[in-house]
Write a structure and sequence with these properties.
This protein is α+β, with helices and mostly antiparallel strands. Helices cover 45% and strands 21% of the residues. Strands 15, 16, 17, 18, 19, 20 and 21 form a 7-stranded mixed β-sheet that branches. Strands 2-1-5-4-3 form a 5-stranded antiparallel β-sheet, sandwiched between helices. A 5-stranded antiparallel β-sheet has the order 11-10-14-13-12, with helices on both faces. Strand 8 and strand 9 form a beta hairpin. Helix 2 packs antiparallel against helix 10 and helix 14 runs antiparallel to helix 15. The radius of gyration is 59 Å and the shape is elongated. 23% of the residues are buried.
Length: 761
């Protein structure tokens, strides 16, 4: 049937629906995701163009500043600090990226002392023309005639004016003496246009990421398209009076441009390529991250790329724009964000995918449910036929089992009339009981007992089981009767159904055993009472024999007679010990021993036992060690001392070599109380795991011949067990065969309060 269910569950339309749904869902997801990516790239390209234009405009703004300040410098009137400051101060707030703007005046080498005296008289008391450390010669690659080159190379371009005030330290510096700047100044003069410096010539003074641009200033107006044709027969550089230059922070420039454009897709990087292909690697000037939301402040990229990652062979896709200004080229990189599996822009694509998958799942579930319903209807029809066959077979097996069992089954209605009876006994005629009640079949007293039992089951609705003695046809029967409520189709109790097993033979055997056990108990108690009552009479002869033996020992001189007398003393001692043990056991069984529980120091018991058993241990070649203990316990000191003595004697009896240890440990019980564990350790042969449960039984001697009386009667641990039960002092035992045994008595510990606690109370 299981194979039929599986083969019927294969619906041909289900795979087609699932495959088609998955194909359409993923196709829509990929299409929308691709469209979103294309839109992001278009937006990134547009923002890269906007950022390029913004940077270009900000570079041009620097030229506007220089040209605005160059007018007074080209006139015949001298420019003072005050006039230069008054011209620059209104313009400086418009350029937040500006580091400094300065006027580098052209001075011949012979006029340097005159300039220094003039500047000192103008208020610069410490003015002095400063070099950068190395005077450079003008390069041969500059497009100018030789005479002009020589004159230009001999001149200095000294900063005499600078704004803002924080740039006053640049005054007196020869700009032409900076590395690579004289060639740049020659090109600027010859071309008559703004030029930008390569690298960072004033990195120490102005900081990293600073860009310098120079504007040549002439004494007369010159044609910017011709830098070599002179006016009045002189070349352009002959009428050069100096350079107006400015320095600005290119990182701040990029930051302002990113904020102005509102760069939202990708990170922006600004690089400065080398002036010549063989001049080294490009220089990374600044980097800014994308703005996640409108109004967010610019910040560095979250995952910034290095120069190698940005320009290397494994560089990511980037939009590159060149910014040409002042004879230099800056390269702008806009790196779009990496494609992520989950992003806010892909909400529509993921919505389409999840919706398609849910729709496909719903359609597939509907088709599968319809197919399953059809299979269940077919399976139910087959199951009903199989259940009918199984019911008939079960009924036949049930009847066969009842036929060969001793169980009698019957049911009764609410009036306790028998409705149906099955009985395997041949002497019971069920047809004679149908329609009758228990009062009609059994004596009145027995019928009242069974009727009350069945009425309680019908009223409570809960079955019960008991053993009843009934008389039927003059024969006594003991039945194990189980009564359960019988309910109708509404769930109401309509009667009882009962099962009875004839246990007459078992009851007879049980009663006989009970009588025999009671007789044995009476005999045992009589024996115990006799021994307890005769304790004094039985001990007195042994005491007399011990006295006579002592007198006899004082009167014997013959060594052979002394040896025989010693043997007699040992026999008397062994007999007295065995008799005392038997009498103590009898006293415990009868209950003549009553514990007297008090608080006392356990060291009192340990000290006496250490002295008493120590001498015996030395005689046997053993070492008894006692660890002192200051604890107080709550127990019967006499009985507890006897328990510990029996454990020590037992250890002494079974240990042939080594030592015996007597000590105490403080422990906590399951209820949180404090107890003291009195432990006896020995190095004897140990006790096997199979004998652990039997060592506390009467007359059991572990590992010895039961007929050997040299090691006692086997009642020492039995007495310990009885005393432990009487005092509620659990006894535990641990042992390893060949290594030794540990017996531990758990005694309640008395909490001792220190004097400081008593004073606090």
């Amino acid at each position: 049937m299981n194979r039929q269910y599986r083969s019927g569950g294969r619906t041909a339309a289900l795979p087609v629906i699932v495959i088609a749904g998955l194909f359409l869902s993923f196709s829509a997801f990929l299409m929308i995701r691709s469209t979103t990516r294309e839109a992001e790239l278009i937006l990134a390209d547009r923002q890269a163009i906007q950022l390029h234009d913004e940077l270009k405009a900000r570079f041009e703004d620097q030229s506007v500043l220089l040209r605005a300040l160059s007018g007074p410098l080209a006139g015949p009137a001298p420019v003072t600090d005050a006039s230069f400051a008054s011209a620059a101060e209104p313009l400086l707030p418009l350029y937040p990226t500006l580091h400094a703007v300065a006027w580098a005046r052209r001075i011949a080498e012979r006029d340097v002392p005159l300039l220094e005296r003039a500047m000192r008289s103008a208020g610069h008391s410490s003015f002095k023309v400063r070099d950068a450390g190395s005077r450079e010669s003008y390069g041969a690659g500059v497009a100018a005639d030789r005479s002009t080159s020589d004159r230009f190379a001999a001149d200095r371009f000294v900063n005499v004016l600078a704004e803002p005030r924080s740039a006053a330290g640049l005054i007196g510096l020869d700009m032409a003496d900076l590395p690579g700047q004289r060639d740049l100044l020659v090109r600027s003069c010859a071309a008559n246009r703004v030029v930008a410096a390569d690298g960072e010539p004033l990195k120490a003074e102005l900081g990293r990421g600073s860009v310098l641009i120079y504007l040549p200033v002439y004494s007369r107006e010159v044609d910017p398209d011709d830098g070599r044709v002179g006016i009045g027969g002189r070349i352009v550089c002959d009428v050069l009076t100096g350079f107006l230059w400015t320095s600005f922070d290119v990182g701040q420039l990029l930051r302002d441009a990113v904020r102005r454009v509102g760069l939202a897709i990708g990170d922006a990087y600004l690089l400065e390529p080398p002036a010549r292909p063989d001049a080294g690697e490009p220089r990374l000037l600044a980097a800014e991250g994308a703005l996640g939301r409108p109004g967010e402040l610019p910040h560095p990229p979250v995952h910034a790329l290095t120069l190698e990652q940005l320009t290397g062979p494994a560089a990511p896709h980037a939009i590159v724009r060149d910014i040409a200004y002042g004879g230099r080229v800056w390269r702008l990189y806009v790196v779009p964000d990496a494609v992520r599996l989950f992003s806010a822009e892909d909400r529509l694509a993921w919505t389409m995918l999840i919706g398609g998958l849910l729709l496909t799942t719903g359609v597939a579930a509907y088709v599968l449910r319809e197919a399953r319903t059809k299979r269940l209807l077919q399976t139910e029809a087959r199951a009903r036929a199989a259940m009918a066959r199984a019911l008939r077979e079960s009924e036949e097996r049930f009847r066969l089992a009842l036929r060969y069992s001793k169980v009698t089954l019957f049911s009764q209605d609410r009036n306790l009339r028998h409705l149906w009876i099955y009985c395997p006994r041949t002497d019971l005629r069920p047809e004679r009981m149908i329609g009758l009640t228990d009062a009609d079949l059994f004596p009145a007293e027995e019928a009242a007992r069974t009727t009350a039992l069945k009425r309680s089951v019908m009223e409570g609705g809960t079955g019960t089981r008991c053993e009843l003695e009934l008389t039927y046809s003059g024969c006594r029967r003991v039945l194990d009767l189980s009564v359960e409520p019988m309910r109708d189709e509404t769930g109401a109790v309509a009667g009882v159904i009962c099962a009875a097993i004839d246990v007459t033979e078992s009851a007879d055997i049980r009663e006989a055993l009970a009588r025999a056990h009671a007789e044995a108990e009476r005999a045992n108690q009589a024996k115990s009472r006799f021994l307890a009552a005769a304790s004094h009479d039985l001990r007195q002869p042994f005491q007399a024999m011990s006295l006579f033996h002592h007198i006899l020992m004082t009167k014997l001189d013959d060594p052979q007679q002394v040896e025989v007398a010693n043997k007699l003393g040992e026999a008397l001692t062994a007999g007295n010990t065995l008799l005392s043990t038997l009498l103590d056991t009898s006293a415990l069984e009868v209950g003549n021993v009553k514990p007297r529980v008090v608080d006392f120091d356990v060291q009192e018991i340990l000290s006496r036992l250490a002295v008493e058993i120590g001498d015996q241990a030395i005689d046997r070649g053993l070492l008894l060690r006692m660890v002192p203990c200051s604890a107080r316990v709550r127990s019967d000191p006499i009985l507890l001392e006897r328990m510990v003595r029996n454990l020590l004697v037992n250890a002494l009896r079974y240990t042939s070599e080594g030592r015996i240890l007597l000590g105490c440990r403080r422990r906590s019980d399951a209820g949180g109380g404090l107890r003291l564990s009195i432990e006896v350790w020995d190095t004897g042969p140990g006790i096997a795991e199979a004998e652990m449960a039997a060592i506390f039984e009467d007359f059991y001697r572990c590992g010895t011949d039961q007929r050997d009386s040299g090691r006692g009667l086997g009642l020492g641990l039995s007495i310990v067990r009885r005393m432990a039960q009487m005092l509620d002092h659990p006894v535990a035992v641990r042992s390893r065969v060949g290594h030794g045994t540990v017996f531990a008595i758990s005694v309640p510990l008395v909490e001792q309060r220190c004097s400081c606690c008593a004073a606090a109370d």
